[in-house]
Amino acid sequence: xxxxxxxxxxxxxxxxxxxxxxxxxxxxxxxxxxxxxxxxxxxxxxxxxxxxxxxxxxxxxxxxxxxxxxxxxxxxxxxxxxxxxxxxxxxxxxxxxxxxxxxxxxxxxxxxxxxxxxxxxxxxxxxxxxxxxxxxxxxxxxxxxxxxxxxxxxxxxxxxxxxxxxxxxxxxxxxxxxxxxxxxxxxxxxxxxxxxxxxxxxxxxxxxxxxxxxxxxxxxxxxxxxxxxxxxxxxxxxxxxxxxxxxxxxxxxxxxxxxxxxxxxxxxxxxxxxxxxxxxxxxxxxxxxxxxxxxxxxxxxxxxxxxxxxxxxxxxxxxxxxxxxxxxxxxxxxxxxxxxxxxxxxxxxxxxxxxxxxxxxxxxxxxxxxxxxxx
Length: 375
Ligand code: ZN
Ligand code: ZN
Ligand code: ZN
Fold this sequence. Notes:
This protein is an alpha+beta fold. It folds into 2 domains: 132 residues, Creatine Amidinohydrolase, Chain A, domain 1 (3-Layer(aba) Sandwich), CATH 3.40.350; 223 residues, Creatine Amidinohydrolase. 31% of the residues lie in helices and 23% in strands. Strand 11 and strand 12 form a beta hairpin. It is elongated. The chain starts with 10 loop residues before the first helix and ends with a strand. The N terminus is likely disordered. The structure holds zinc ion (3 copies).
């Protein structure tokens, strides 16, 4: 991720997000948050350093205090151009100075702080050495729902990213599959995502035939044949917000069994979607999808959780998984993506991004969920 996020947010939006984050930190018993460059920093400030280096860049949020961005002096001019820059104070430090001392001066000694999961270990160690009485918690573990509820502008961006991914699917279904390598179809998919406005392609999974039975298979040299099921799972970032959708197509006429398995996954995906409503626990979405596959006798072949959140990244909390009791809240966005994976044979997965509305769910992907036959 490079450059500042092009999302249409202004300093007031970022000020409100930082205030909300500081409030959430206080409610979680934290003395503050230390945010490293990455998704949280982009979401809180609009700032994404062009290069993340060993020089410390850290946003310090403390309840009751003004946000401060500790930044290397040579990066300060770029940081000052970030959309949220006027909502925070820049505290630059020059080479030769101790950036941990600069940061420590902003913190309550002895406090417990949430720190970005992706902060470099050397920076956390630097802070621990400078403030030995201070302790740290994973920001994602301490505040898993910080970015989970999207506002109207964020929902529009996620919907636009979903529509772009759908447009890519409508084109990819027209290309030849039989006789081409998975990697060639994957390259087509990446081109299409960019053509429809994605600035970043995170994954283009093309799992043909037996490769489709491995949900982690990305794509390879296998030549796609007539008769193959092909799992297509693709997404990335458009205008700073994510897309992620899966459709499973078939090359030529499918067998009765392939149709049946695809129907079961489609019904499971529909059941998961129907379970989305405010107040329902995340695990209810997983249970609803899984029940359909269990009842059809394929339960042991549905080998992953039903979904994950999406926003400024393509994988984030909340997770639709057994044991996750977090209630759904209007504005949350996540995938519903059940699958059946028959080892050595084929796999089927169908995935939409869904957002929670006032009384149910709304899909942000809307290409057909019937099996598409390709050439
Ligand atoms: Zn087949
Ligand atoms: Zn996906
Ligand atoms: Zn997904």
